[in-house]
Amino acid sequence: MIKLLLLGLILFLVTIIPLYIFNSSSPWPSFRTLKTINFGKTTCTIFQGRWIWYPNSCIKFGRPDTDFLKWRWKPDQCELPLFDANQFLELVRGKSMAFVGDSLARNQMQSLLCLLATVVYPLDVSYTSDSRLKRWFYVNYNFTLASFWSPHLVKAIDTDPNGPTYNRLMNLYLDEANDVWAAQIEAFDYVIISAGRWFYGPQVFFENGKVVGCHLCLKNNIKNLTMLYGYRRVFRTAFKILTGLENFNGVTFLRTLSPAHFENGEWNRGGNCIRTRPVSRGEMKLEGDDLELYLTQVEELRRAEREGKKRGLKFRLLDINEAMVVRPDGHPNHYGHWPHENVTISDCVHWCLPGPIDTWNDFLLQMLKMERY
């Protein structure tokens, strides 16, 4: 049953996303912004390190191999404790946590659900039948966990909802909130926000209700702008929403971009991710548009930090960059679909459960501990 559940989670991730989010073959950069964590009398930058062989784990779902499970993240300066579900639940007792973003945000939330399931199962208290908007309640801990589907973070309108998923034109209102999450987020104590691969698709940008330009829209009467133009502004708007909510007193974590690892071709031209172990430092790096996206979101977080201080709000960087860039082995590849579906495009964007993505929640746990001091 657990095996089927985990496979189902991966399958669900890949059934509701447009294919153009796969449109990048370059993984992540050497640039990093580090988070120092206190371990007793010492400090440690947990985001800088390497993967070490750790064979004491194995849960199998669709992939025939399991070696990708047998690695753990080792920061250069310390040991990163294994995830302690009891400790996590005690830290969030009486609190609430929301993941805001696309299917990779949900991927992290599902990882967390699985990790916490070693202690207790939550109640599904979702207020809608829409599977993209989930809410779970841990009764014994009075802890609410929620996921808000908002891949562009701001108000977005699909101009052709029934059209092909790989080239849908989206209207993005760069200065307007997406009320799917913005109308409810004020009550949450912790917000993990992220966005990325949806911005590779065609978009028309609106500001103050008027068209200001577009990316890949192929309209001669609209000014061509880069996707970075929209990307910067949606993060600025999202952070502005959080700082502007009168009763919001939560901690916001920016989870940095998650790397795709297509090799042997582009995502739609036979690209796959068939490696079975991590690569060494420097063997893969971020470049081009992916690097610019990463730098842009970090810059906007720093801007939000400055604004947030005026209200006593905290903005934190959950930087998965260095850990995940070297894990091309951690994706479902073509095992992210049921065999009878006959899907030929590999999934080298999402992450296997369990797998390297669980480390994101190792990081999150340590950062939550720091917020208590």
TrEMBL record:
Swiss-Prot/TrEMBL keywords: Membrane, Signal-anchor, Transmembrane, Transmembrane helix
Short name of one Pfam family: PMR5N
Keyword Transmembrane in annotation: yes
Topology relative to the membrane: Single-pass membrane protein
Top-rank lineage group of the source organism: Eukaryota
Domain Trichome birefringence-like C-terminal intervals: 80-367
Major site of localization recorded for this protein: membrane
InterPro entries with a match to the protein in the record: TBL, TBL_C, TBL_N
Trichome birefringence-like N-terminal domain span: 57-79
Subcellular location: Membrane
Family: Belongs to the PC-esterase family. TBL subfamily.
Protein known as: Trichome birefringence-like N-terminal domain-containing protein
Natural source organism: Hevea brasiliensis
Lineage of the species this protein comes from: Eukaryota, Viridiplantae, Streptophyta, Embryophyta, Tracheophyta
